[in-house]
From TrEMBL:
GO terms for molecular function: peptidyl-prolyl cis-trans isomerase activity. It holds the Pfam family Rotamase. The gene is surA_6. PROSITE patterns: PPIC_PPIASE_2 (PS50198). This is Chaperone SurA. Its EC number is 5.2.1.8. Keywords: Isomerase, Signal. The keyword Protein biosynthesis does not apply. InterPro entries: OMP_Chaperone_SurA (IPR050280), PPIase_dom_sf (IPR046357), PPIase_PpiC (IPR000297), Trigger_fact/SurA_dom_sf (IPR027304). It comes from bioreactor metagenome.
């Protein structure tokens, strides 16, 4: 009997998975695979290492789930790159490790030494960087020819940034859909449906039913706000919407956002353009837990960021985080978005994966180099930004497709 090519491949993959799964089931070794991704194993040791690495990088939420998701995606990146024949030499990987360490103002050797202090070994760092590098090369090869930025695209983006942003206010509604590990595809599918809505009433009803934002009870409606208060990457998206039109889904940290433009005022108060924001966060705990409710109730009386340390009296002080003030564009997307509608001393609660965080605005100031922002944007810089945005969109969609079609087994 002659097997079809598809059936033959399926049987071959089944045998591989069965063999490895059987081996994993008969050993308690931390180096045995606990997850198989298209036949590539993820070991318990790798998961523990990635958790420590994420903890060092201050990753919020359930670290176990986040580590597993990250490693599964890395296996898919490496698998897809291998199918495309992409191989990196040692020099390219070493350069990538140096670039990553440079973000912390450290050499590669210094960064590895810091990792070792927390129990993270060098191969963990190297594998993490390698997966990112091969994926970047794969996305570039696969989608690079499709990304063409025209002069009119640049002109439009520059017009939005330099002419319309200064005194513009927007009246928008928001829906934030949680996308915890393993449920990203469902969240994206629901977000795509919402983005097709063309009625403020329908959007408000969807917000009441599905949004995780604190505005859900108000139909997702936000008050008038200066466009400059919003994250820089979000401004051109909103300026491209007509009243009653919803945006495409926007990736946040453990969530997906959709916005609807209700009205726009291009003659509002003059904006400050570039802003530097100071904020603090309080990790409340799992969403819906008694601890989260109690901490949120105590934090309601806080008027300043320093007051949050009083809220956690008797608890680990690490529950409160207060990063140095930074430009809007350097902040995590969900944090920057949450701060957009806050005055100093005000708070809101974010759902990040399976956990919740309270965010308080500590300061909002004009950037030190704000005078420079009054000059026309550089065309090359705008072109590069638009290219990165489009490549990022292709990258996210491709990874989602790979995940949806992957054979993932937990022996």
């Amino acid at each position: 009997m002659r097997l079809t090519p598809l059936l033959g491949m399926a049987l071959a993959l089944g045998l591989t998975v069965t063999d490895v799964a059987a081996q994993a089931a008969t050993t308690n070794s931390p180096f045995a695979p606990v997850i198989l991704v298209n036949g590539l194993g993820v070991t318990g040791y790798e998961i523990e290492q990635r958790m420590r690495f994420m903890q060092l990088l201050r990753q919020p939420g359930d670290l176990r789930k986040a580590a597993e998701k990250s490693l599964i995606e890395d296996r898919l990146r490496v698998w897809a790159a291998k199918q495309a024949g992409i191989v990196l030499d040692k020099d390219a990987v070493a350069k990538g490790m140096t670039e990553f360490a440079g973000r912390a103002n450290l050499t590669s050797e210094q960064f590895v030494a810091e990792l070792a202090k927390t129990g993270v070994d060098e191969p963990t760092f190297r594998d993490f960087v390698t997966a990112g590098l091969v994926w970047r090369e794969l996305v570039k090869q696969r989608f690079g020819p499709r990304v063409r930025i025209s002069d009119s695209d640049i002109d439009r983006a520059m017009l939005m940034e330099s002419e319309r942003g200064g005194g513009t206010r927007v009246l928008i509604s928001e829906i934030i859909l949680p996308a915890p590990p393993g449920q990203e595809a469902e969240a994206h599918a629901e977000a795509e449906k919402i983005s097709q809505l063309r009625s403020e009433a329908a959007f408000a009803e969807a917000a009441r039913q599905m949004s995780a934002a604190s505005t859900r009870d108000n139909g997702g409606r936000l008050d008038w706000m200066p466009l400059d208060n919003l994250p820089p990457a979000l401004r051109p998206v909103l300026l491209g919407l007509a009243p009653g039109q919803a945006s495409a889904p926007i990736e946040l940290n453990g969530a997906v956002a959709i916005f609807m433009m209700r009205s726009i005022d291009e003659h509002g108060p003059a904006g400050t353009r570039a802003q530097t924001l100071g904020y603090a966060t309080l990790a409340l705990g799992p969403a819906g837990s008694e601890q989260a409710a109690q901490l949120a109730q105590k934090a309601a009386a806080a008027k300043r960021c320093d007051d949050l340390y009083t809220v956690v009296k008797g608890l680990p002080v690490s529950l409160v985080s207060r990063p140095d003030p930074a430009p809007q564009g350097a902040l995590p997307k969900d944090i920057a978005l949450a701060l957009a509608g806050l005055d100093i001393g005000e708070t809101t609660v974010l759902t990040r994966g399976a956990g919740q965080e309270l965010v308080m605005l500590c300061s909002r100031e004009a950037a030190v180099d704000d005078a420079k922002s009054e000059t026309a944007p550089n065309r090359d810089a705008v072109r590069a930004r638009l290219q990165n945005e489009r490549m990022g969109s292709y990258s996210d969609s491709y990874l989602a497709d790979l995940t949806a079609n992957a054979v993932i087994v937990r022996p």
